[in-house]
Amino acid sequence: MVRFKNRYITVEIVAPLIPDDKPLELKPKIFHNTVLSKIQQMYGDFGVAAVTNGFLTKYCNEHTRIAIIRSRHGPHRFVTSSLPFITKIGNLDVRLNTLHVGATLKHCFKFIQKHQRAYLDTTWCKLKTDEERRKLEAAVLDYTKTDVAINIENIT
């Protein structure tokens, strides 16, 4: 039996028109389809065929604007090279920054924890009450923001 290696790409979604304190209304399915359409535009049918097998949006947090994409090792280069060229997701103007490419989901979540702790430290000084701080911390450190329906559809 052959083991397939995966790469997990941690992406930051920067939307300059939406303030940082408001959550980004972004569905993982729309994000997933936008990345695939950009790969189609840049690499054609070969790129889409290489990436489609094993391509999932594993995690998407609207508050910190971070997403994790899973791709097979090898074709992950198509994904990482096409991410900077995505300027629109749906009708929202965005810029995507690749933060981390890891071999395991565990290491990506460790990286995200460090990144989100830094985010919490910068935004806590702007909040006035402890209740607002607890709500923000719960939303930021929630790692269950994944759209299971799209992930089940794409499992082969």
Chart the SSEs and their pairings.
Blueprint: E1 6-14, H1 28-52, E2 56-61, E3 66-72, H2 76-82, E4 88-89, E5 92-93, E6 95-102, H3 105-124, H4 130-140, H5 148-154
Antiparallel strand pairs: 1-3, 1-6, 2-3, 4-5
Helix pairs in contact: 1-2
Protein name: Ribonuclease P/MRP protein subunit POP5
Keywords: Nucleus, rRNA processing, tRNA processing
GO molecular function: ribonuclease P RNA binding
Structure, described:
- This protein is α+β, with helices and mostly antiparallel strands and 156 residues long.
- The protein has a single domain, classed as Alpha-Beta Plaits.
- It contains five helices and six strands; from the N terminus they run βαββαβββααα.
- The strands form two sheets. The chain has a four-stranded antiparallel beta sheet, sandwiched between helices.
- Helix 1 crosses helix 2.
- The longest helix is centred in the N-terminal third of the chain and has 25 residues.
- The two termini are 16 Å apart.
- The C terminus is likely disordered.
